[in-house]
Design goal:
Blueprint: E1 2-5, H1 14-27, E2 32-37, H2 42-52, E3 61-62, H3 64-70, H4 74-83, E4 85-90, H5 95-104, E5 107-112, H6 116-136, E6 142-147, H7 158-167, E7 173-175, H8 183-190, H9 195-198, H10 203-215, H11 217-221
Parallel strand pairs: 1-4, 1-5, 2-3, 2-4, 5-6, 6-7
Length: about 220
Amino acid sequence: MITVVASLKGGSGKSTVTFNLAIWLSNAEQKTVLFDLDPQLTLTDAVELRREENYKPLLSVQSIAEFDKFKTDTANQKKSRKSQQVLMDVGTADLERMQQALLLADRIIVPVPPSQADIWSTQRFLQMLDKLYREHKKTRCEIITFLNRADTHHAVRESDETAAALLTLPNTKFVKSRLYQRTLYRRSFSEGLAVFEMHARSKAAREFMALVANLYPDIIKD
């Protein structure tokens, strides 16, 4: 399966989510291929740190040149869909490759922080996808949204309001599992570790496992 983690807005946590998913999939004995198509290369930095520390499982990131080959290699794409988990972290700084990745995707995961600006950005992202699909006559793939960096204080209503707005977006699947605004996500990422590796019994780890159960139910059943 080719999964693209994307949004139009920076700071939504795409690289952190992709990194944690890659480690979980590798631990689940899934052959996992990573592409970092964001010129900031944040995902690449975290993977390189992990390799320097020799944390298992080791991850590797495919280069931009390898993506440019992959996007035209239909045989390789077909093989990947059948026997691999391909994760792509994309950014708008390279809009052309972002759009190429979106056209390859079997599904698109959109992390959305709790703010009105992020709701508007997600709406614009969906409009961009619609236009892209029409121009290339592509069948719509699955689009999944979820709340990332949600408020931890029960008195703050912005997370619930954002979730309510995401539920109304057309042609999307909203996953109710939330990742909250916790220091552990930043700390673990900066040390080349997944949240469940750094603190397996933490709230962050439990939240992430709940999200994974929604994103990869077939793997968990296996």
